[in-house]
Predict the structure.
Amino acid sequence: MNTDKGTLKIGKTWIEHAEGQARLCSHIRINGREEVIWYGVNSEQEKYLIRDRSDPFVMLLLPTAMRGSLTMTSEDPMSERLHYQLQDLLMPALCSKGDRYHYVNIFTPLTNEPVSSEGAVVTGFSGGVDSLYTIFTHGKDSLLPVTHLTVFNSGVYEGRNYRRNFQRFSENCRRFADELGLKTIFVDSNVYEALPEDYISVVSYRLLSFALAIQPLASVYLLSSGYQAELFHISSERAAYNDLLTVSCAGTESLRIYLPGAETTRIGKLEAISSWDPSFRWLSSCIWTDSGKKNCGHCKKCMWDLAALYAMGRLENYSPVFDIEDYKKHLPQRIGFVLSNTVDLHCRESAAYLKQSGAYIPPLAYKCAELFRDAVDKGEKKNER
Ligand SMILES: [Zn+2]
């Protein structure tokens, strides 16, 4: 049921030039508040920005409209297939659970004219397990070889320096792409400032919105899955749980979207890439470490992956990106942490894999696991008081 509480208007799009970039812009009016939101690429790649079509903006603003019960309107036409999929399939599903999202109408001219595309196969590069797995499984000999790597400034880089961080990650991506002989396209934006959101709850809609902005380049976009397919469920808090549905609803007459990685687990992805030479130099598991630097080795993501690589007997291969000597020196503590944590899905996976593998687990690791569990229990009790 539509419970309209206002409007979200997407104005006619135009191209602007600034800071060496070509920017696809639109005036967005949300209940009277007005923002110009833009997607920017290097000027030489201007031809890859979509023209006279609202697809990226509709996808970007869908969660905002659904949360605020805002009827969406667009002056530019929208791809007919995308409109049907969002209006009739994705939105009713997202609104079927919880009360965060509400069904809203999208009033817009429609077009079924395909966008003329260069036919590129594009995927994001972060150096993370999910991203490396997608690139590894879509190599030159695959049925769908990746041609372009991308970094989207979609809101994941936080703080005052978010555009500088985007540039740093783009530069890192360029070096990786050069090594693999792939092309790049980097899409900058002001969405972090113009449309602040809880990123985890909107990440997939954001990334897909950026992919829709470069339809004249991409005929396929590969969204790397963070979860295996069996974990699919409707969630308004963590958008990635919806991905199997979202990707099937985000394509157009000219852009196909797939979700590689949903067919396996994080351990399955690590097993696959652990014999792939580029991963030895580029795996970036870490929550804390900056792009291009060694992983810290002791945040939870580092410890999940290191425990699994230890169990596979592949630790030494990753000495360019982890301090393996330090890991081995603190093996009981590092493994103890993984054994102690039964809350994180990926941690449970790593612990189970480690036990099944038959790899040596120092007795002290079990003692450390007990200490970690006690510390967490005490912390929780303290918080309850
Ligand atoms: Zn780390």
